[in-house]
Write a structure and sequence with these properties.
Blueprint (H helix, E strand, L loop, with lengths): L1 H4 L4 H7 L4 H5 L11 H11 L2 E2 L2 H9 L51 E3 L9 E4 L15 E4 L9 E3 L1 E2 L8 H16 L4 E8 L5 E10 L11 E4 L3 E11 L7 E8 L2 E6 L8 E12 L3 E4 L2 E8 L6 E7 L4 E7 L4 E5 L2 E7 L10 E9 L10 H17 L2 H7 E7 L4 E2 H9 L7 E13 L2 E13 L5 E15 L6 E8 L7 E3 L2 E4 L4 E3 L10 E2 L7 E5 L13 E10 L6 H8 L3 H4 L3 E2 L8 E2 L2 E2 L4 E9 L5 E11 L2 E11 L2 H10 L1 H9 L1 E3 L8
Parallel strand pairs: 2-5, 7-16, 21-26
Antiparallel strand pairs: 1-6, 2-3, 3-4, 7-8, 8-13, 9-12, 10-13, 11-12, 14-15, 15-20, 16-19, 17-20, 18-19, 21-22, 23-24, 24-25, 25-26, 27-28, 28-29, 29-39, 30-31, 31-32, 32-38, 33-36, 34-35, 36-37, 37-38
Helix pairs in contact: 7-8
Length: about 675
């Protein structure tokens, strides 16, 4: 009750109120039930708590002692549990059954009411632990689980416990060693780069880049137009360019090139070969670089090497956070006041040789925004957009689509999207039934997760309906405060479910091994933004200087297990995030490539497609898709280059042809599982 009363927004408080709340208040000694994960997650966050994860519940119930099948010991004892299928029809007060205590002294972790847990990254089902008052002995163990189908489902027999994270206990020596390394980096005279990413408690972010270098031979007093990319984060406000003492430098030009990138040119006092120090600082608005789903936040930041420079990247997490997973592994971690700090060195190991995204998943006691929107307001905004698309209402679309709007996989920006949906010819695409699965704010941006029936057409003109298509829409409160504007509409991805160990990737469910030669090991990256179970990629270029022109080169592998009697058009769209039907491109000669993976020619079971796809801003992709079907296993190997013109993209594709061939040869698709050999 106290937590609900703290919610200022009356509409939000009403949405968060459990079922039969008035009656429940008459029995304050009973556990709260009739509340969904979506409700309790929001109440907990607004109050500075979190819903327990599966591992936290296990530790609370058995203290990590595997022999404890039940919280009180290895053997079932009906006297210790508030459950009796033959004699109970409601829970007991929370302080009864003292004999049910776990080693930590916590009561009724099995029986009484089910314990709602965090769904983690496994989907939208909510695990319920420990059984409840009508459960039999088999369901009353520390490890027993049942599930609710949706985050919004509630039951009269399921409750929840909330927790708070204990701060990391790190040695002070780690922090001092990192600071000593930074000091050494900027005192030795060797080129160095320090990138600090800070997540603030309100969900906004700051990024500061410190550079130590030497004046160029040809332009000793000018940096030249250098890019500062913050992919996944919109740069807000002016980019500050300061010298090593924190004083503003004279700037010839600072240009906001796009929502995620700037270019800057500054004057530097000095002579040819002389050292310079530079500090860049900007505020960021998180887009897909930081977003929430259920109670888990996912952060993507680049780890970049810069030629021969020593480079360090630090991420300062918001207070009261708990890291769930990090890829690639950090070189160091320490506490800075009330924050956890994660550190990667770019002159050690694999990170030193590549530019990869660091993927950090964390939970937090508290929200990462100033306010939490009501579900009704989000549903109203989505419905208004869907209705405008159905009606071809240009006026509403112009109001709803933000200036930065982007639609994937179409590659449409605002003007093209409005034209497509409001023109008479747009009827090749429509949105049918839809369902809001979740909505989580980070800063001013709300990430919504949806299922939509999306009707489109194949490239041969045949209609195809993508039912329950997972989509992600990003909204931002309109400047006048009335309603929301749409920033992005895109297929909703999930995390890769394979494993990477010492440069060898394996996917046990799809029986795949990907083992490139040692000169490419550092480039393997597991992804978490696509619609497939298997999703990895390799980039052959080791230094940032090779990417300075904004070009792209990578080899990616995707895989998924198809349901029985799956529609081939739907599977092709799943493998390509909808690009098979919805991405505009030019198909080239299909026989241009050979369907070779792992050195095997799969014949008719594989098809090769070559494409030119336009990139936003006038540039182009050159891609080759090798599509393979083995029973119910579907795979896509994608070789890709991107450049400012078709000709340059084609030239890059030819230049890296040997790399693409090596990657295809490194893929092994087995006839049986690893555990069957």
């Amino acid at each position: 009750r106290a937590m609900l009363e703290q919610v200022v927004d009356e509409d939000l408080r009403e949405e968060l109120t459990p079922v039969d709340w008035t009656a429940q208040l008459e029995r304050p000694d009973l556990p709260v039930v009739g509340i969904s994960f979506s409700q309790v997650r929001t109440i907990a966050a607004l109050s500075g708590f979190h819903v327990l994860a599966d591992r936290e519940f296990e530790l609370a119930a058995n203290a990590g002692i595997d022999a404890l099948t039940f919280p009180w010991g290895p053997a079932f004892d009906p006297r210790n549990v508030a459950a009796n299928p033959m004699g109970m029809n409601e829970p007991l007060p929370v302080q009864e059954k003292l004999s049910s205590a776990s080693p930590h002294g916590i009561l009724n972790l099995v029986g009484n009411v089910g314990e709602m847990l965090s769904p983690g990254t496994d989907g939208w089902e909510v695990p319920i632990a420990g059984g409840y008052f009508l459960s039999d002995e088999a369901e009353l163990t520390c490890g027993s689980r049942t599930w609710l189908d949706r985050l919004t489902d509630s039951k009269g027999w399921a409750g929840v416990r909330l927790g708070r994270f204990v701060p990391r206990q790190e040695s002070e020596a780690t922090r001092l060693a990192v600071e000593e390394r930074i000091a050494d980096m900027f005192e030795t005279g060797h080129p160095g780069v320090l990138a600090d990413w800070t997540i603030r408690a309100d969900g906004s972010m700051g990024m500061e880049l410190r550079l130590l270098g030497n004046h160029s031979e040809d332009r000793p007093n000018s940096m030249g137009m250098r890019p500062l990319y913050t992919e996944g984060f919109a740069q807000r406000g002016k980019l500050e360019v300061l010298d090593g003492h924190g004083r503003p430098l004279e700037s010839e030009q600072v240009v906001l090139q796009s929502r995620e990138g700037s270019r800057f040119d500054v004057k530097l006092a000095g002579r040819k070969g002389q050292q310079f120090r530079l500090r860049l600082a900007t505020d960021l608005e998180p887009w897909d670089g930081l977003m929430g789903r259920a109670d888990l936040y996912s952060l993507h930041v680049p780890l970049s090497s810069l030629g021969q420079a020593r480079t360090m990247t630090r991420v300062f997490l918001p207070p009261n956070s708990q890291v769930e997973s990090v890829e690639p592994p950090v070189n160091a971690a320490y506490r800075d006041g009330d924050r956890d700090v994660l550190v990667w060195y770019a002159d050690e190991g694999r990170v030193a040789q590549s530019q990869v995204p660091a993927i950090v998943r964390f939970r937090r006691d508290g929200v990462l925004a100033d306010a939490w929107p009501t579900r009704e307001s989000i549903e109203s905004a989505i419905q208004r957009f869907v209705q405008a698309v159905g009606d071809g209402d240009r006026d509403v679309l112009e109001q709803m689509l933000a200036a930065e709007f982007r639609q994937k996989p179409h590659g449409r920006f605002r003007d093209k999207a409005i034209a497509a949906y409001s023109s008479p010819e747009r009827r090749s695409e429509s949105i049918g039934d839809w369902e809001l699965l979740d909505a989580v704010p980070v800063g001013p941006v709300v990430t919504t997760w949806l299922r939509m029936d999306w009707q489109t057409t194949e490239r041969n003109g045949e209609p195809v309906v993508l039912r329950d298509w997972p989509m992600r829409a990003r909204l931002r409160r309109a400047e006048d405060g009335a309603g929301f504007q749409l920033l992005e509409l895109a297929p909703a991805g999930r995390a890769d479910t394979g494993a990477l160990d010492e440069g060898v990737y394996r996917h046990a469910g799809l029986w795949v091994e990907f083992a490139p030669s040692t000169d490419a090991i550092s480039q393997i990256v597991r992804l978490d933004r696509h619609m497939t179970d298997l999703q990895v990629k390799c980039d052959p270029r080791r230094s940032k200087s090779e990417r300075q022109d904004g070009s792209i080169v990578d080899f990616a592998l995707f895989g998924i297990q198809a349901p029985q009697d799956a529609d081939p058009a739907v599977m092709k769209n799943l493998l390509t995030d909808g690009e098979w039907s919805m991405r505009q491109g030019v198909q080239l000669d299909e026989s241009a490539g050979t369907a070779l993976l792992g050195g095997l020619d799969y014949g008719r079971r594989a098809q090769v497609y070559d494409w030119h796809f336009p990139r936003p801003g006038g540039a182009w992709f050159r891609e080759r898709w090798t599509l393979l079907t083995l029973g119910r296993r579907w795979f896509l190997a994608r070789a890709r280059t991107g450049a400012e013109t078709k000709e340059k993209a084609d030239a890059l594709f030819r230049q890296y042809g040997e790399f693409f061939d090596k990657m295809a040869l490194a893929v092994t698709i087995r006839e049986k599982g690893f555990d069957q050999e």
